[in-house]
Amino acid sequence: MTPIYLDNQATTPLAPEAFDAMLPWLRDNFGNPHSSHVMGRPAAAAVEVAREQVAALLPKNGRVIFTGSATEAINLAMGAARTQQGRDQIAIIDTEHAAVRDTALWYRTQGFETTLLPVDADGLIVLEELEAYLGQKTALVGAMLVNNEIGTIQPVEQITEMAHRAGALMLCDAVQGFGRIDMPQQADLIALSGHKICGPKGIGALWLRDDIEVPPLIHGGGQEQGIRSGTLSPALCAGLGVAAKLCAERRETDRVHIASLADKARSLFGAWTVNGSLDQRYPGNLNIRRDGLDVARLMSDVRGVAFSAGSACASGSGRPSHVLAALGLQPAQIKSSIRLGFGRYTSIEEVEQAAHLINQAAENQLS
Questions:
Q1: Rounded CA separation 123/246 (Å)
Q2: CB 189 within 8 A of CB 83
């Protein structure tokens, strides 16, 4: 039996429209988009259509670089810190995704000073701490738009204004918010992922403000405007492009649907405590805990629901959630927390059935 899928922060189902857009480039039109002959030109055109579809959801004064993932896009974006002459400090929020957090910490080995900015009990950045940190040595500030574990929406526009006043660049990991909420219009670098918006896995993108330069991570043929070498997949680009287009077309419909799912879920998990802000959060993310619960056992008992105990990207590391720890939760509370993720293709009936199964297993365990 197919489980009820409630892990849309980890990945999303591929939209049928995105699949249909990809299929011709996988089956029939196999030309290299970087070739100038009769088979290459249509492939190149498909890539550019996709680029425009993605760019339509982003600020107008920049360009889109396709990458193999959001993680690659973030690593590429971090290189902008190297272009800031006389500046060797990086500041990121302590609850950032590992793609930002671990990369920023790696920069310590490259002569940079990396600071992890604290959050309050709701998971929101403490702006006074950022203000105290920023100075003439700050090269780059990083902030997620929507946290992948707790759904908290950071005040990225305000953070950007503060960073720019100090002369620093602003990097926004918009993976969980792209296509769902407004993009930060003043950011310098924005990273996104295909498979978080009902597009394909294996493709992401970096948006760069027009006057921003980043050194290449990958050297070779000079594809993607000389920044990201390697042959692009027209199929993946087309899938991401159509997924972005669908997000634009369905934004209000999706918003209303996901809000209704969130309201229903909160009413069904009344015995649980919500982790993170109740108000400043993306409703498709519900991170909750119940004291005394062994979540590893719970997940084993509830095989009929696909949900998580945290970030899929860190699930194999054995590390407790740094996000929940940053909120001030104790180890026992972290181990009693689960994350439920709702999406476009989730139904009310699935939420109700999943809540019944999870609550029943929790009661059996705690009784």
A1: 30
A2: no
Residue 312 in this model has a pLDDT that exceeds 90 = no
On the question of a common fold for 4-12+251-366 and 16-245, the answer reads no
CB 60 within 8 A of CB 88: no
pLDDT tier for residue 319 given thresholds of 50, 70 and 90:
confident
- CA gyration radius, the chain: 21
At the topology level of CATH, where does 16-245 sit? Answer: Aspartate Aminotransferase; domain 2 (3.40.640)
What six digits make up the tokens of 206? 């970096």
pTM of the model: 0.96
In one letter, which amino acid is 361? Answer: A
Question: Does the annotation count 313 as an active-site position?
Answer: yes
The pLDDT assigned to 320 comes to: 81
Element (H, E) at 339: strand 337-341
Using DSSP, state whether 254 is helix, strand or coil. helix
Among the listed residues 86, 90, 109, 87, the one whose alpha carbon sits nearest the alpha carbon of residue 101: 90
What class is the 4-12+251-366 domain? Answer: alpha beta
197 contacts 258 by C-beta, under 8 angstroms: no
| Helix, strand, or coil (residue 340) | strand
Average the pLDDT over 62-78 and give the result: 98
Q: Give residues with Cβ within 8 angstroms of 145, minimum separation 6.
A: 153, 154, 156, 172, 173, 174, 176, 177, 178, 181, 183, 184
The answer to whether 260 and 252 are in contact (CB under 8 A) is: no
- Domain residue limits, the chain: 4-12+251-366, 16-245
Give which of 13, 346, 2, 60 is closest to 198, Cα–Cα: 13
Buried-state track 177-186, b at ≥16 Cβ within 10 A, e below 16? bbbbeebbeb
CB 237 within 8 A of CB 46: yes
Tokens of 124: 């929101």
- Choose among 104, 102, 191: nearest CA to 145: 191
Task: Count the neighbouring beta carbons within 10 Å of the beta carbon of residue 321.
Answer: 23
Q: Which segments within 194-244 are labelled E, that is strand?
A: 204-209
Name the nearest CA neighbour of 107 among 85, 92, 127, 129: 92
Residue of 172, 237, 247, 313 marked active site:
313
CB 218 within 8 A of CB 228: yes
